[in-house]
Amino acid sequence: MLRIGVVLNEKQEIASIMDGVKIAVYEKKESGWFPTYEVKNYLGQKETIDEMREFIQQLILELKGCKILVAFALTGIPFMMLDKEGFMLCEAEEISERLFEEIAYDYAKTEQEKLRHSLKLQIDYPSKPFETNIKGIFELDLKKLQECHPQISSKMAVIPFLKEETFYQLNLYCDHVMPWLEHNPIMLGYQYEVIKLESKGYQVCIGKKLCR
Question: Is the separation of the CB atoms in 2 and 27 below 8 Å?
Answer without folding.
Answer: yes
